[in-house]
UniProtKB/TrEMBL annotation:
GO cellular component, as recorded: endoplasmic reticulum membrane; late endosome membrane
Organismal lineage: Eukaryota, Metazoa, Chordata, Craniata, Vertebrata
UniProt source species: Serinus canaria (Island canary)
Transmembrane segments: 222-241, 395-419, 431-453, 903-921, 927-946, 967-989, 1041-1059, 1071-1091, 1111-1132
Name this polypeptide is given: Cation-transporting ATPase
Catalytic function, reaction form: ATP + H2O = ADP + phosphate + H(+)
Entry membrane topology: Multi-pass membrane protein
C-alpha cells in the first residue's frame, strides 16, 4: 500500500455525536486462528467463554493489526468512561447488477457517498453494521461513513434541483442495496438466545463452578437449592427481557410496511412498499391520514402533523416546505434551529395536507430505518447509555478483595492438608471450597431483591421504571431540573386580559371572562386568524394558547374549506367565520392564505389573511420584545417596557400582537417571511394566566429543606419564569436575582457578557407590585448562595461558545434558564453533570426527551411514546413523584449497602470458622453449611429489603461509595469482633477440664453409650467423610460445635446491627417480617444450643457440652452484640464525629461544584455586578486582574480538549 498501517489502523466513527466510537482495523491470520481453536478444545471451551466476555482479547489473539482499508475485522471501543469493546466483520456488497457501463453512473451521485463507496472496477462496497446502523467505506476519504441518510452538505436549492424530480430506477436500486431496507426491525429475541446469553453471565458461571464442586463433595441439598434459585432468577430475567422485546417489536412494527407513492425521474408516479424507500426518493403525500415510514423534508405544499410520538404532546404541528433559497450554506445551517418545521419525522402522522400552486404535496426522503428520529429513539432503548455509578465499580473492587482473601485461605488450606499427608484430590477440593465460602454466590441475587421491592413500591405509587439500575442513582440526586409549563404550572393557559394599543398609547384593559364580547377591529382579527389551528376529528386542535385565544372570539373554523382540490391556492386555505354566539361582524369570514409557523428561534408566528372580498393583511403574534422590534417605532407605546414588566413580574404569560396591510397585486406565495414581518403596526398585548399546580410549592420546599437544588428550564419568557420561580419558592424573597445577558458584538466574531441585578432594573412605579421586594432596611444579601442567576437560551449558548470559563460559575448559582431549546436543555443537564452534580430532570415529555435521556434520573409526566426514552414515568402529572423517587432511591441505596455488608460478613464469618477447623483437619458438616446458607442467610437476604423508605427527606445523602471510611471501618471492625470471638471460643474450649480431643462424649458421660449407639446406626447420606463417621473422627468435635454455634448466631447479630433504620429507612421494627424471621432463627439456634436430642445432634454433627459452657457461649455472643451495636451507633453512624474528623484533617470534597463553591466564597469580586466583559479580551481581564474568576479545573480541561 505504501502507507503506514499504524497510522491508518485507527479512526473515529460518528465523531462529535452521542454514539461516538473509536474503530481499529484487524486482519484474521490463519495460524493464530488455528492456535486459538486448539486452545478452545484443550480448555474445554473455557478460552472461548473468556473471549465471549472479552471480545477485544478475541480480536488481539486471532488477528493482526492492519489499516482500516485492508481490515476484514474491526474492533470498536466507546469513548465514554467505560471504554466498552465490540467487534464486527467487514462484509462486501456487489452493485454490478445495476451498473453495466460507464453511462449507468448517475450524475446526481458524483458528490455523494453512494458514488464514493463503489470500488472500481470490481463494483464492490465494503460495509459494517454497528448498533443497527450501516456504514460503508468511502474509497476517497479512506473512512467508514454512515449510509441511510441524505448528506447534510446539500443546499436548499440543491435539494430542490437534484431530488425535486425523483431518482431514476437505477439510482434507487444502487441506494437500496447499500442502505438496506427502510425498516426499524426489532425482532422478538428467541427464548433460547436470551437463556444462553443469561446463563453465560460470569456470575452464573461462578455458580455453576460452585455447584459442580458441591456435588463432588456430596453437598447436594444446598447445590440443589442454589440451582433452583438460579433457574428462577434466570427465568424471571428472561421473561422480563422477552416481554420488553415483544413490547418494543409491537411499538415499531406498525409503520414498517406501508404502501407509499414515489415519483420516479422520467417514469412518473409509482406505488411501492415503504421498506423499498431510500434517501433521495421523492415521496408524494396524498389527502387523508398517513403514517410516515421515514424522515423526509417537505419540498412543496404544507402539512399538519401529529408528533406526539416524538414530543409527547398530541398537538397538531404545521410543517411548511423548504424554501428554494439560492444560498451556499447547507440547508440545515441555513434554516438554523427552524429546520424542524420543514421536516416530517418517521412514526408521526400526517393528518392534513395542503397543496400549493405547484400541485401535489411532495417530500424528499432524508433518513431511513434506524437513522430516523424514531429509529434513534428505539436504538436508545436497545443500546442504553451505561451508567457510571460508583456503587457498581466499588462492588467489583470489593469482590476482588474477597477473592484475594480466598486466595490466602487456599494457600493456608493447601499447606495444612498437604503437610498432614492428605490425598491430592481432597486437598484440591478443600482449597477450591474456600473460594465458594469466601465469595458468596448469592450476592448479586441478594442485591437485586432490594431493587425489585423498590420497583414494586414505586409501581403502587404510579411511578413506572424501565431502568431499575437507576433507582439507586435516585438516592444520590442533589439537583433537579424542572420544565415549567405542564410540570410546575398547569398545562393550559387562561385568558386574563387584552391590553389594546392605538396611536402608540395603551387603551383600557379588556378583562376575561367579560359580559360583552371583544369589539370588531384589527385586534379581534388577529385573535381570529393568527394561529395554526385545524379541525381534526370534529374538534378544534392545536396549541392550547391558540385554542384559548380563538375561543375568545366565538368564531368557528369552516372545516369543509380545507379539503377542496381545485387548482387555485386559495381553495386550500382555512376559512374562519363568525359562530352562533359571536358579536356581529361586518364580514362573512376571513381566509387564512398562508402561515409562517411558530419558530422557537424567531419566537413568533405570522399569517397572511384576507377578509372575504377584502385586501390581504399580515398578522403576527409572539414574544412581546420580538414583536415590538419588528413594529414601526411610532406605533409602539412609550411605556411598553414598564407595562410588559408589570405583567410578566406577576407571572402572567404575555403575547405581543401586530399587523400590516399588504399590496393586493403580489401573490402571498411569492412573499418571504422577512417581507411579511417588517414595518408592522403594534396592536397590543394578550395577557394569559398560567397557574402553579397545587403540589408545586410544597414539593419544592421539601426539596429545598433536603438541600436538593431546584432549577427551572423553560421555553417561556425570562421575566415570567423568574416570577414563577419566586412564587414557587425556588428563589427566596430575601435573595437577589442577577440577570446574565450575553450578546454577540455586531460586525465581529466576539461577544459580550453583562451581569445586572434585577432589582435595579425595575421602575419606581413597579416596585410596589413586586412581591419579592424587601421592606426598607432589609438588605439583599450577596453571600454564597444568596443570589440566583437567570439567563435566556441565547445567552446560555453564547456563554457556552465564547465564555466557557464562566459557565461552571454561572451554573453554580443558576436557577432560571428561560427560552431554552430542546438541545440546550440536554446540554445544560450535561454541563451540570460535569460539575459532579447528580441531576434529575422532570418534564412533561414535550421538548424534554433529550434532557430526560441524559439526566441521571429522567422523570416523564407524560404517558406518550416519547416517555419510552425516560427511565421513570409518573402516571400522576405532578412533581410530587420527585421527592417520592428520591426517598425510595435513598432507601434502596442504603439497603444495597446493608445487604453488601451483611453478605460480605456472613461469608467471612463462615470462612474464618472453616479455616480455624481446617487447623485440626476438620470442617463444618453438610447440614451445618446448609443451615447457615439456606435457613439463615437466604431468608435474611430476602426479608432484609422489606424495610420501607423514611417519609422525611433529610438534608444530606447516603454515601455513594462502598469503599468509604465509615463503611470499610464497619466491615473491618465486625470481622475483627467475629474473629476474636471465634478464636476465643476455639482456644478456651480446649482449656476446659471436660475437654478431650479423642473422646467427644467426655463432657456428657451420661449419654455416652446412647450417643455412640445412635450415631453408629445412622447411615446419613450427603456427609463429606462417611468413612470417618463410625469412629466419630469426622466433623464432630468440641471445637466444631463451639465455632459453628458462635458463627451461626453471629450471622444473626450482624444482620440486626447492619439493618439501618433512620434517617433513610423506617426503623427496623417496622419490618415485621424481618424481625419475626430473626426471632424465629434465634429461637432455633438457641434450641440447637441447649437441646440434648441425640438424633438431631447426630444429623447436625454437634456434640453435647456442659450447660455452663453453653451459657458461656451465650455470654460471648451477648458481648459481641453489645460491642458491635455500640460501635455501629456511636462511631460508624455518628455523623457529627465524621464531620469533625473531616474538619480536623482538612478533608475537602472532590466534587467540582464543592471545590468551585469554596473558591467563589473567597472571591469578593464575584459576581461582577454591572460589569461587561468581551470574549476577545476576557483571558487578560479574568486571569490578570481578577484571579478568583479563573477556575483552573475547567480551564485546564478545556485546554486539553
Amino acid at each position: 500500500m505504501g502507507e503506514n498501517p499504524a497510522k491508518n489502523h485507527y479512526a473515529q466513527l460518528n465523531q462529535g455525536e452521542e454514539n461516538e466510537m473509536e474503530i481499529f482495523g484487524y486482519k484474521t491470520q490463519g495460524c493464530r486462528r488455528a492456535l486459538c481453536i486448539a486452545g478452545y478444545i484443550l480448555s474445554c471451551g473455557a478460552l472461548r467463554l473468556l473471549f465471549y466476555w472479552k471480545p477485544e482479547w478475541d480480536v488481539w489473539m486471532n488477528c493482526i493489526q492492519c489499516s482500516l482499508e485492508e481490515a476484514d475485522i474491526v474492533l470498536l471501543r466507546t469513548t465514554d468512561d467505560f471504554r466498552t469493546y465490540s467487534h464486527k466483520t467487514v462484509t462486501w456488497i456487489s452493485v454490478s447488477a445495476f451498473i453495466k457501463s460507464r453511462s449507468d453512473y448517475p450524475t446526481t451521485e458524483e458528490d455523494s457517498i453512494f458514488s464514493k463507496a463503489i470500488m472500481k472496477p470490481s463494483l464492490l462496497v465494503r460495509t459494517i453494521q454497528v448498533q443497527k446502523i450501516r456504514y460503508v467505506w468511502n474509497v476517497y476519504a479512506k473512512q467508514f461513513q454512515k449510509v441511510g441518510v441524505l448528506e447534510d452538505h446539500y443546499t436548499c436549492s440543491a435539494i430542490h434541483d437534484k431530488f425535486g424530480s425523483g431518482l431514476t430506477c437505477n439510482e434507487q436500486n444502487v441506494r437500496r442495496v447499500m442502505c438496506g431496507p427502510n425498516t426499524i426491525d426489532v425482532p422478538v429475541i428467541p427464548i433460547w438466545k436470551l437463556l444462553i446469553k443469561e446463563v453465560l453471565n460470569p456470575f452464573y458461571m461462578f455458580q455453576l463452578f460452585s455447584v459442580c464442586l458441591w456435588f463432588a463433595e456430596d453437598y447436594m441439598e444446598y447445590a440443589i437449592a442454589i440451582i433452583f434459585m438460579s433457574l428462577l432468577s434466570i427465568f424471571l430475567t428472561v421473561y422480563d427481557l422477552r416481554k420488553q422485546s415483544i413490547k418494543l417489536h409491537r411499538l415499531v412494527e406498525s409503520h414498517n410496511n406501508i404502501m407509499v407513492t414515489v415519483c420516479r425521474n422520467k417514469e412518473g408516479f409509482q406505488e411501492l412498499e415503504s421498506h423499498y424507500l431510500v434517501p433521495g426518493d421523492l415521496l408524494i403525500l396524498k389527502e387523508g391520514k398517513t403514517l410516515l415510514p421515514c424522515d423526509a423534508v417537505l419540498v412543496s405544499g404544507q402539512c399538519t402533523v401529529n408528533e406526539s410520538m416524538l414530543t409527547g404532546e398530541s398537538i397538531p404541528v404545521t410543517k411548511i416546505h423548504l424554501p428554494q433559497a439560492d444560498n451556499l450554506k447547507p440547508w440545515r445551517v441555513y434554516c438554523a434551529e427552524d429546520y424542524r418545521k420543514h421536516v416530517l419525522f418517521c412514526g408521526t402522522e400526517v393528518i392534513q395536507t395542503k397543496a400549493d400552486d405547484r400541485g401535489v404535496v411532495k417530500a424528499v426522503v432524508l433518513q431511513t430505518g434506524f437513522n430516523t428520529a424514531k429509529g434513534d429513539l428505539v436504538r436508545s432503548i436497545l443500546y442504553p447509555k451505561p451508567m457510571n455509578f460508583k456503587l457498581y465499580r466499588d462492588a467489583l473492587r470489593f469482590l476482588m478483595c474477597l477473592i484475594a482473601f480466598a486466595a490466602i485461605g487456599m494457600i493456608y488450606t493447601v499447606c495444612v492438608f498437604a503437610l498432614n499427608g492428605e490425598e491430592t484430590g481432597e486437598v484440591v477440593k478443600k482449597a477450591l471450597d474456600v473460594i465458594t465460602i469466601a465469595v458468596p454466590p448469592a450476592l448479586p441475587a441478594a442485591l437485586t431483591t432490594g431493587i425489585i421491592y423498590t420497583q414494586q413500591r414505586l409501581k403502587k405509587k404510579d411511578i413506572f421504571c424501565i431502568s431499575p439500575q437507576r433507582i439507586n442513582m435516585c438516592g444520590q440526586l442533589n439537583l433537579v431540573c424542572f420544565d415549567k409549563t405542564g410540570t410546575l404550572t398547569e398545562d393550559g393557559l387562561d385568558l386574563w386580559g387584552l391590553l389594546p394599543s392605538e396611536r402608540n398609547c395603551f387603551q383600557n384593559i379588556h378583562s376575561f371572562p367579560a359580559d360583552h364580547g371583544l369589539p370588531w377591529g384589527p385586534v379581534f382579527k388577529a385573535l381570529a386568524v393568527c394561529h395554526s389551528l385545524i379541525v381534526w376529528e370534529g374538534k378544534i386542535q392545536g396549541d392550547p394558547l391558540d385554542v384559548k385565544m380563538f375561543e375568545a372570539t366565538n368564531w368557528v373554523i369552516d372545516d369543509s374549506s380545507g379539503h377542496q382540490n381545485e387548482d387555485q391556492g386559495s381553495t386550500h386555505a382555512t376559512v374562519v367565520r363568525p359562530g352562533l354566539q359571536a358579536t356581529t361582524a361586518p364580514v362573512e369570514g376571513i381566509t387564512i392564505l398562508r402561515q409562517f409557523p411558530f419558530s422557537s428561534a424567531l419566537q413568533r408566528m405570522s399569517v397572511i389573511a384576507q377578509e372575504i372580498g377584502g385586501d390581504p393583511q399580515a398578522f403576527i403574534k409572539g414574544a412581546p420584545e420580538t414583536v415590538a422590534m419588528l413594529c414601526r417605532a411610532e406605533t409602539v407605546p412609550s411605556n411598553f417596557e414598564s407595562k410588559l414588566l408589570l405583567y410578566t413580574a406577576q407571572g402572567f404569560r404575555v403575547i405581543g400582537l401586530a399587523c400590516k396591510s399588504l399590496q393586493a397585486g403580489k401573490p402571498p406565495a411569492a412573499l418571504t417571511r422577512e417581507e411579511v414581518e417588517s414595518d408592522l403596526t403594534f396592536l397590543g398585548l394578550l395577557i394569559m394566566e398560567n397557574r402553579l399546580k397545587r403540589d408545586t410549592k410544597p414539593v419544592l420546599e421539601e426539596l429545598s429543606a433536603a438541600r436538593i437544588r431546584s432549577v427551572m428550564v423553560t421555553g417561556d419568557n425570562i421575566q415570567t419564569a423568574i416570577t414563577v420561580a419566586k412564587s414557587a419558592g425556588m428563589i427566596s424573597p430575601t435573595h437577589r436575582v442577577i440577570l446574565v445577558e450575553a450578546n454577540k458584538v455586531p460586525g465581529s466574531s466576539s461577544a459580550s457578557i453583562t451581569w445586572k441585578s434585577l432589582e435595579e432594573n425595575k421602575t419606581e412605579d413597579y416596585r410596589s407590585l413586586d412581591d419579592s421586594q424587601t421592606e426598607p432596611g432589609v438588605t439583599l444579601a450577596l453571600g454564597s448562595g444568596q443570589y440566583h442567576f437567570a439567563m435566556s437560551g441565547k445567552s446560555y449558548q453564547i456563554v457556552a461558545d465564547h465564555f466557557r470559563h464562566f459557565l461552571p460559575k454561572l451554573l453554580l448559582n443558576g436557577t432560571v434558564f428561560a427560552r431554552m431549546s430542546p438541545s440546550q436543555k440536554s446540554s445544560l443537564v450535561e454541563e451540570f453533570q460535569k460539575l459532579d452534580y447528580f441531576v434529575g430532570m422532570c418534564g412533561d415529555g414535550a421538548n424534554d426527551c433529550g434532557a430526560l435521556k441524559v439526566a441521571h434520573a429522567g422523570i416523564s409526566l407524560s404517558e406518550q411514546e416519547a416517555s419510552v426514552a425516560s427511565p421513570f414515568t409518573s402516571r400522576t402529572p405532578s412533581i410530587a413523584c420527585v421527592p417520592e423517587l428520591i426517598r425510595e432511591g435513598r432507601a434502596a441505596l442504603v439497603t444495597s449497602f446493608c445487604m453488601f455488608k451483611y453478605m460480605a460478613l456472613y461469608s467471612i464469618i463462615q470462612y474464618l470458622g472453616v479455616l480455624l477447623l481446617y487447623w485440626q483437619l476438620n470442617s463444618f458438616g453438610n447440614y451445618q453449611f446448609l443451615f447457615q446458607d439456606l435457613a439463615i442467610t437466604t431468608i435474611i437476604g430476602v426479608t432484609m429489603s422489606f424495610t420501607r423508605a423514611y417519609p422525611k427527606l433529610v438534608p444530606y445523602r447516603p454515601p455513594s461509595q462502598l469503599i468509604s471510611p465509615p463503611l470499610l471501618l464497619s466491615v473491618v471492625l465486625n470481622i475483627l469482633f467475629s474473629l476474636s470471638m471465634q478464636i476465643f471460643g476455639f482456644v478456651v474450649v480446649q482449656e476446659q477440664p471436660w475437654y478431650s480431643q479423642t473422646d467427644i462424649h467426655s463432657a456428657c458421660p451420661s449419654v455416652n453409650n446412647r450417643e455412640r449407639n445412635s450415631s453408629s446406626s445412622l447411615g446419613l447420606p450427603g456427609l463429606r467423610d462417611g468413612a470417618h463417621e463410625q469412629t466419630d473422627n469426622g466433623y464432630k468435635s468440641y471445637e466444631n460445635t463451639t465455632v459453628w454455634l458462635l458463627s451461626t448466631i453471629n450471622c444473626l447479630i450482624v444482620a440486626l446491627v447492619f439493618s439501618k433504620g433512620k434517617p433513610f429507612r423506617q426503623p427496623i421494627y417496622t419490618n415485621y417480617v424481618f424481625i419475626l424471621v430473626l426471632i424465629g432463627q434465634l429461637g432455633i439456634c438457641l434450641f440447637l444450643m441447649f437441646a440434648d436430642i441425640d438424633d438431631l445432634y447426630s444429623k447436625m454433627d454437634l456434640v453435647c457440652t456442659p450447660t455452663s459452657w453453653r451459657i458461656s457461649m451465650v455470654g460471648m455472643l451477648a458481648v459481641t452484640l453489645a460491642v458491635s451495636f455500640l460501635v455501629e451507633e456511636a462511631v460508624i453512624e455518628n455523623r457529627p464525629l465524621w464531620l469533625l474528623l473531616k474538619k480536623t484533617f482538612q478533608y475537602h470534597s472532590k466534587s467540582h461544584y464543592k471545590r468551585l463553591q469554596h473558591v467563589l466564597e473567597q472571591d469578593s469580586a464575584w459576581p461582577p455586578l454591572n460589569e461587561t466583559f468581551f470574549s476577545d479580551s476576557v483571558a487578560v481581564t479574568v486571569e490578570g486582574n481578577m484571579g478568583g474568576h479563573s477556575n483552573p479545573t475547567f480551564d485546564s480541561s478545556e485546554d486539553s480538549l
